[in-house]
Amino acid sequence: MTEVITNIQDMQRLARDFKRDGKSVGFVPTMGALHDGHLTMMRRSIAENDVTVISVFVNPLQFAPDEDYDAYPRDIEADTQAAKSAEVDYVFHPSVEAMYPGEIGVALKVGRLADVLEGAQRPIHFNGVVTVVNKLFNIVQPDRAYFGKKDAQQLAIIEKMVADFNHPIEIVGQDIVREADGLAKSSRNVYLTEKERQEAPELQKSLKSAEKLYREGERESKIIVEAVTTYLESHTSGHVDEVAVYSYPGLIEQQHIKGRIFISLAVKFSKARLIDNLIIGDEEID
Ligand code: PAF
């Protein structure tokens, strides 16, 4: 049975009960508009923990005034149905007023990791993400929390936050879940026009061409970035916002590739900015 909890104190009481009863808690934080990527994390959490909690909360703090906070898809009925079909135990769905009852007195600020890539495009975004994730961790008190690797920069920042703030939580990164044609699942894919939707699988194909170059021994980032950019420009009508090669999870831009890297791209279509990435190479160097 899936139960929807809207009250923060009720959720905290449950979290205390789970601890008292020695039950492990898996947590999947979401902003709703649940898709197969979320469902994969929910199923994994159910397999790995005694209790699974998901949160559905569109966090105003991580949207700039010109972003899609108001338009962000919200359908708690459909999300609850999806959670029920996955057999999630609890859906935590607090109101904005409950989460942010007054003026914010203490805010979190992400350091260097937020200065690049998505963070450079969206300067307040990751401060809002770490603030809400901290609050959610304090409320739900999970043993494990699941985040998608599509938002690889977010995952790296959350891992750093958990280390810096000593949260006793294991962060589990979930591989990107894709449509049959290769488009990475995202709640924002609904913004694509029909033509853009047809072009969108080219994003993954461009990354595959980068992977091929890498496997053939190419280690100059410039060559890989140029190949991906040219591919995207000739196969999509979107504007190529960024193609970059960074170390992962340290997020330092690489000229000459060594260790584990992250090839990241962002393409702006008429109403959606899509991101995709490839993490490659075994050894972490930072
Ligand atoms: O990835 C998301 O959906 C959000 O950034 C998160 C982690 C739920 C925080 O609002």
TrEMBL record:
Beta-alanine binds at residue 62. It is found in: Cytoplasm. GO terms for biological process: pantothenate biosynthetic process. GO terms for molecular function: ATP binding; pantoate-beta-alanine ligase activity. Signal peptide: none annotated. Its EC number is 6.3.2.1. The keyword ATP-binding applies. GO terms for cellular component: cytosol. The keyword Nucleotide-binding applies. Its main location: cytoplasm. (R)-pantoate binds at residues 62, 154. Belongs to the pantothenate synthetase family. The reaction proceeds by a bi uni uni bi ping pong mechanism. Homodimer. Catalyzes the condensation of pantoate with beta-alanine in an ATP-dependent reaction via a pantoyl-adenylate intermediate. This is Pantothenate synthetase.
